[in-house]
Design goal:
235 residues; mainly alpha; 10 helices; 0% strand
Length: 235
């Protein structure tokens, strides 16, 4: 723990990138839904993510939660776009098939559905759902915003990224960061629009707080939609 804090204190790059890399690696190791272990691994990953946020917080000073009407509007608007912009070619699962770059799966992918795994309405299923919604709303935003909006956006502009002000609009980094963010999600088109909106907030405010809030609102509303409508494909 002390070593991690020293690493973050000595390197602004690692303070913003390493938590994301660790969280991404855990996501890759999580495996596909279908066994209880995958869900418990997600719970453990969320706990690790919370610890990473606490460790990086003293060294990523621009990542302080803040609220504004712009953050609320962007968060709600992106949630609506994420649900509304939803057809075959807007998801990577089908885009690459339509472009002839991959083959259609012979069986439908297993969806992340705790009710199917632990029983409809069971306390265990609701616990896992609560962890997912809280984790995506409170843990994911600071990790991803620090990486994409603070590090990657500025690093594309200049290797000495800390010398680049957060409130400076830079066309090439703006587009490239949004593309990377978008294609890190299955819903790539909504992801690109989402990345642009969050980056706009970071540029407008000169910090990550409002972008984090918008990100958290989007993820929370999307989680509620998933459970309410049974739209497990978004998870």
């Amino acid at each position: 723990m002390h070593l991690l804090k020293k690493t973050f204190g000595d390197s602004p790059l690692l303070a913003r990138a390493l938590p994301f890399v660790i969280f991404l690696a855990l996501t890759c190791l999580q495996g596909k839904p279908g066994t209880p272990a995958a869900y418990w691994f997600y719970v453990a990953k969320t706990v690790v993510g919370l610890w990473l946020v606490c460790e990086m917080r003293p060294f990523v000073t621009e990542a302080r939660w803040s609220f504004s009407w712009e953050a609320a509007a962007v968060g709600i608007g992106i949630a609506a776009i994420w649900v509304g912009v939803n057809c075959d070619w807007t998801t990577q699962n089908t885009l690459w098939v339509k472009l002839g770059l991959s083959h259609a799966p012979t069986t439908p992918p297993k969806l992340w559905n705790p009710f199917e795994q632990f029983g409809a309405g069971s306390a265990l299923a609701w616990f896992v759902i609560a962890v997912r919604i809280l984790g995506s709303s409170l843990v994911v935003p600071p990790i991803e915003e620090a990486f994409y909006r603070s590090f990657l956006y500025r690093y594309i502009a200049k290797v000495e990224f800390m010398s680049v002000p957060l409130n400076r609009f830079l066309p090439k980094p703006f587009v490239l960061t949004a593309l990377v963010f978008g294609f890190s999600h299955n819903e790539w088109l909504a992801g690109i629009l989402c990345g642009m909106a969050y980056q706009w907030l970071a540029i407008r405010k000169g910090h990550l707080g409002d972008a984090m809030t918008a990100h958290g609102i989007t993820n929370c509303l999307l989680g509620i939609w998933v459970v309410w409508r049974g739209a497990w494909n978004f998870w």
